[in-house]
Amino acid sequence: MSGGENASHERTVLGGAAARLAVEGGAPVRASLLPYARQWIEEDDVQAVVDVLRSDWLTTGPRIPALEEAVATSIGIAHGVAVSSGTAALHAAAYALGVGPGDEVIVPAITFAASANCVVYLGATPVFADVDPATLLLDPVAAEERLSDKTKAIIAVDYAGQPCDYDALRRLTSRTGVSLLADASHSLGATYHGRAVGSLADVSTFSFHPVKHVAAGEGGLVTTDRDDLALRMTRFRNHGIDVDHAQRTAASSWRYSMVDLGYNYRLSDIHAGLALSQFGKLARWLERRRAIAAFYDREFSSMPCVRPLETRPGVEHAYHLYVVRLDDPGWSADRQTVFTALRAEGIGVNVHYLPVHLHPYYRTHFGTAPGDCPAAERAYENLLTLPLFPGMSDQDVGDVITAVRKVAARYWSPVA
Ligand SMILES: *Cc1c(COP(=O)(O)O)cnc(C)c1O
After folding, report:
1. Any idea which of 175-189, 233-247, 324-338, 345-359 has the lowest mean pLDDT?
2. Given the CA of residue 211, which atom of ligand 1 is nearest to it?
3. φ and ψ at 278, to 5 degrees?
4. 49, 101, 148, 233: most buried by Cβ count inside 10 Å?
5. Buried/exposed code over 48-83 (b: 16+ C-beta within 10 A; e: otherwise)
6. Nearest CA owner, ligand 1 atom 3
7. Ligand 1 center to 253 CA (angstroms)
8. Residue nearest to ligand 1 atom 10, measured at CA
9. Which stretches of 326-373 are DSSP H helices?
10. Nearest CA to ligand 1 atom 13
11. Nearest residue CA, atom 7 of ligand 1?
12. Does ligand 1 come within 6 angstroms of the Cβ of 237?
């Protein structure tokens, strides 16, 4: 990622015929599509899974507490509870907080649908709150405006990997007796004023989907300092049963009681073995994610055509996503056109996310509508996610810059 490399990219892009867009019949910047995110599996990860397959335990074995302890220790929190997905983690966390019929839960408009769906699973109502347009993080003032005497919890989403304004959210929740649930699916390894994400809310959830920081295939984990919540979630993942097979074996007993209505949200040891192996590489991978993001930041600081999201002081960003806005008035093309042009160049751009309250399900069943969260809706119109994952080579990163320059050269010019 040297300056010399950029200079040569510039020549290619500005060099006459070479600048013809792939979407208009020119040669693409890349022959193969660079995805926006990708897992990184090495031989030792493969071996970790094979070891599980050769062991006595394919599920509810020793990898589960090992993974739970590794994550909880790195965060500096009492409990980790491993479950079968990030969505199951959200469901278990909201359940443990006592969310139920008649309750309202405040959810930011810009997030993956699962952040709101977990509220609906429990018979409660998600109430969408607007985001800060500079960061797309839940705006604490907007959250406060949505509070009612039915509000049970606030779900904070660390969008793109940047921790929310937890001090402001904590002040709000402790003043009102509302619980704080952090959907930290994007922010494993991030810190907020020196404190690790996963320790900033009553309960925090993570995802081990392959596009996230650590891959299990499918998997999730919840962290909390509260013993009561950890116990409720441990039961919830296993049908609401009070003891697991290991405890029954230890007690030489077949007896168990189902004390709550739970689900089968257990994580298998096959998945946990992979996640555990991957988790050991998190620090190194975060460094690479941050280096790529810093490189993008530097490049885009001289390109007004794309405007990266802002990062707040005092946070260490985990960069699950690198998101830019195409809101400069110099664009003569809309976001769809730019998106299609970049895809044709071999750059797997994406959009995160359609505001959840605009999905047909929520409009039909909860009466949400355009206008509910204007900052989120405005931002959505020109969001673009660029590829960012630790396995990207310097060449891959350079290709992204080259393609953005090439597309901007065609569709953007400075406004006087
Ligand atoms: C990925 C994600 C989830 C769901 O995680 P799964 O492991 O895919 O179930 C929830 N919330 C957010 C914000 C996510 O990005």
Report:
1. 233-247
2. 1
3. -65, -40
4. 233
5. bbeebeeeebebbbebbebbbebbbebbebebbbbb
6. 86
7. 38
8. 114
9. 335-344, 360-366
10. 112
11. 86
12. no
Taking the complete model, does pTM exceed 0.85, yes or no? yes
| pLDDT band with cut points at 50, 70 and 90 for residue 312 | very high
Average pLDDT across the chain, whole number: 95
SS3 of residue 178 by DSSP: coil
* CA atoms of 79 and 234, how far apart (whole Å): 10
Residue 132, SS3 per DSSP: coil
Cα 304 to ligand 1 centre (Å): 32
Using most ligand atoms within 8 A of CB, pick from 118, 185, 271, 351 the residue to mutate for ligand 1: 185
Amino acid at 128: F
Cα Rg of the chain, angstroms? 23
* Amino acid at the residue 85: S
Q: What is the pLDDT of residue 12?
A: 46
CA distances 209 to 231, 274, 335, 365, Å, are 24, 12, 27, 28
Query: Could you identify the residue written with the tokens 């800060």?
Result: 132
d(CA 164, CA 311): 10
Q: Which amino acid is at 351?
A: V
**Given a cut of 60, is residue 14 above it in pLDDT?**
no
CA distance 198 to 95: 18
3-state secondary structure of 374: helix
Would you please indicate which residues are annotated as catalytic (active-site) residues?
Answer: 212
* pLDDT tens digits along 34-70: 999 999 999 999 999 999 999 999 999 999 999 999 9
Q: How far is the CA of 85 from the centre of ligand 1 (A)?
A: 8
Atom of ligand 1 nearest to the CA of 320: 15
281 closest CA partner among 68, 44, 123: 44
Terminal alpha carbon distance of the chain: 32
Position 242 scores a pLDDT of 87
**Can the peptide bond before residue 353 be classed as cis, meaning omega within 30 degrees of 0?**
yes
210-245 pLDDT, tens digit per residue, is 999 999 999 999 999 999 999 999 999 999 998 777
Question: From the CB of 114, is ligand 1 less than 6 Å away?
Answer: yes
Dist CA 79 CA 93 (whole Å): 12
- Which two three-digit tokens encode residue 92? 């278990």
